[in-house]
Structures are given as C-alpha cells and as structure tokens.
Amino acid sequence: MTAHLDTDIAIGGLFEEENSAEIVNARISADANPRLAEVMAVLTRHLHAAIKEIEPTHEEWFKAIEFLTQTGQMCTDWRQEYILLSDVLGATMLVDAINHRRPKGATPNTILGPFYVANAPHYENGANICLDGKGEPTLVSGRVLDTTGRPIAGATLDIWQTNDDGFYDVQQKGVQPDYNLRGLFTTDADGYYAFRTVKPRHYPIPADGPVGKLLGDLGRHPNRAAHLHFIVTANGYDQVITHIFTPDCQYLHEDTVFGVKKELIAEFTTESDPAVAERYDLSVPFLAVNWDFVLTPL
Ligand code: BEZ
Ligand code: FE
After folding, report:
1. CA 170 to CA 177: how far, in whole Å?
2. What residue's CA is closest to ligand 1, atom 6?
C-alpha cells in the first residue's frame, strides 16, 4: 500500500465540514496585511457559521450568488446598489454608530444617503431653498453651538431634502429646477442660521432593483421617515452628517434604513407672528422648527 493512502498517516490541512473555517483561514499568509487578514478571518468564520446554521441547498446558494450578481450589475456612477443593501440591512448605521460615538448632548450622526450633491448654491440666512413652490412653507432656524453652549460663528450648513412629491431634484432632472431644496448657509457671529423650506414628507428609497425586490420578498416597505439632511462643518470641530425628522411621519418608527434617532426628532410648530412672517416673506400661519446643532471639538 502506498504511503498517501495509509489512513494511519495524519493528513493535515484537508477541508472537512467540522474544521472548514479554520482550514480556510490557515491559508492566509503571515505576510498578508494584518488588518486584511483579521477582517477576512472574521468574515470567513461568520460566513461558515451562517452556512452551517442555514444548510443551504445548491439552488439556494446559487440564488444568493445571483442576487449579489444582480446587485453589482445594478451599480452605475449614479446608483450604488451595494450601499443600498448595506443601508436596508442596518450595516450603514452600525458602521456610522461605531465611528461617531459622541458625548451626550452633541448632535448625533445619521445616514448620508446617495442624494447629496456638493457645491449647492450658497444663500444668505433667511433665503428660500424651495424653488418649485410646492409644499407647506416652513422656517427652519437655530444655532450651531459647541458642547459648552458657546455659539460657533462661520459654521457651514449644507442642506438637502426631497420636494413635496417625495423626490430629490437629481431624481427628476428637467422636472424639478436644479438645486431645488438644496443650499449652503453660514452661521452669523452669534452662531445663528435660518432658511425657508417646505415640510419634508416620507419617500421610498430606489426600489426598482434587487434590494427593492428583497424588501418586497421580506414583506418590508421601502419608505424613509420624512427628514431634512444636513452636513454641518466648522473649523476645529467634528463634522456632523445628520437629519431633522418630522414628529408625525407614519414611518418614524420603521424607517427602512434605520436612520431615526430620538435626538433628531424635531417639533414643527404653527406660527403666526406677523413680524417674523414679513421678515422671511411667509404668509401666516406658517410652520417653524427651532433647531440647534451641537458640535464636538476635534
Ligand atoms: C436618503 O436619505 O436620501 C437615503 C438614505 C439611504 C438610502 C436612500 C436614500
Ligand atoms: Fe433623504
């Protein structure tokens, strides 16, 4: 009998169901980038554990491969279906939470989303960013502060939201005016900002691809709770990528990308002060949100 068929001879390194992940991970070279080696070892361990728990058939495994293939094929310069997958699985919010642990009282981050556009028009405080005239006029104003309550002058607020039909301008080129409901504002010497907009409404994330189909197959809706987006930046402070949510949205407790944090739910009050209305070119009554952003030092 030849040596390689001798069952008494220990054969190391061969793949078996019981030691599958360890065998795969043992192939990682000692010269590999240590972070890559760590990440791949953990992912392999969890992947093998999931497969052992699920015990997929070949057909089921191929369906998973097809899903990932279609997700990749859906990606273009304008559409990132993998980020959408990360969003609806809560992975985007988890990575963000791990990377932005802020002290109590500081404005928390939430999801950036795919509809941010750099270099929006820079407006004077009080300007109206709603260019299509649709929706409920709303005055948003407040201050940018540090964690001790001191105002931050010269902070930049980069703002974007959907129109009253639930679409961002970039989703409706030629239908909405360019830069509709987008704008850059700078806080004054007392840290104040103000702008006119319209009350945001809920809207579905792009659901015409494999991620939308997955949501449907799981009996999940694709809707985001109504929100305004902000990126607040100031020299010497940690940039905040965040939202303000409306308190009365039907999806507040079931945002499809898990972006809602209780600290980000604002009050939208109905106001009738004629002096304020005149100053911001509003008719009474109008909606108002008073909202401060609190930044942490770098
Ligand atoms: C958004 O808020 O714009 C958004 C976030 C995640 C996925 C799709 C849209
Ligand atoms: Fe959004």
Report:
1. 9
2. 113
